[in-house]
């Protein structure tokens, strides 16, 4: 079951005020970015948080799960708790590096020579 658009909109509303929020759809699921940093993974209408020591105290009573087959275990964020969601998002944004820019692909164009 893919994540619904209205659910991703709700997540963005719940964490509003934590920075510049955007999301990217990937294979029917989403990554939520704050200030261009990937902080929340959304799969099957569930919000997953990477198990980092910086959020361990806030997430210690949270459920845990796997966002997709082959993934590491993540915390499951109670997105209905706006205070918790904002606190976790702010901490993750501070402790998550910006993604490294992807190398540009070479086009492989061949120069033609005029005679």
Q: What are the key terms here?
A:
115 residues; globular; alpha+beta; 26% strand; 6-stranded antiparallel β-sheet; 6 strands
Give a quick rundown of the structure.
By secondary structure, the protein is an alpha+beta fold. About 25% of the residues lie in helices and about 25% in strands. It has helices spanning about 5-15, 55-60, 80-95; strands at about 20-25, 30-35, 35-45, 45-50, 65, 75.
- β-strand number: 6
- Main beta-sheet strand count, sense and barrel state: 6 strands, antiparallel
From the alpha carbons, calculate the radius of gyration and give it in angstroms.
18 Å
Show unreliable segments.
none
CA distance, first residue to last residue: 59 Å
Mean pLDDT value? 91
User: Fraction of residues in helices?
Assistant: 10-25%
Strand order of the largest sheet: 1-2-3-4-6-5
The structure class reads: alpha+beta
Q: H/E element string?
A: HEEEEHEEH
Number of helices: 3
What portion of residues belong to β-strands?
A: 25-35%
Coarse morphology: globular
What this model shows, in words?
With 115 residues, the protein is α+β, with helices and mostly antiparallel strands. It contains three helices and six strands; from the N terminus they run αββββαββα. The chain has a six-stranded antiparallel sheet with strand order 1-2-3-4-6-5, covered by helices on one side. The protein is globular, with a radius of gyration of 18 Å.
């Amino acid at each position: 079951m893919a994540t619904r658009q209205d659910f991703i909109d709700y997540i963005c509303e719940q964490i509003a005020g934590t920075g510049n929020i955007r999301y990217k759809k990937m294979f029917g699921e989403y990554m939520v970015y704050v200030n261009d940093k990937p902080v929340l993974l959304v799969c099957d209408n569930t919000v997953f948080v990477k198990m980092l020591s910086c959020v361990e105290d806030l997430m210690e009573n949270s459920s845990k799960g796997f966002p997709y087959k082959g993934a590491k275990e993540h915390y499951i964020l109670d997105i209905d708790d706006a205070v918790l969601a904002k606190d976790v998002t702010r901490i993750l944004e501070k402790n998550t590096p910006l993604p490294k820019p992807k190398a540009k692909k070479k086009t492989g164009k061949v120069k033609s020579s005029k005679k």
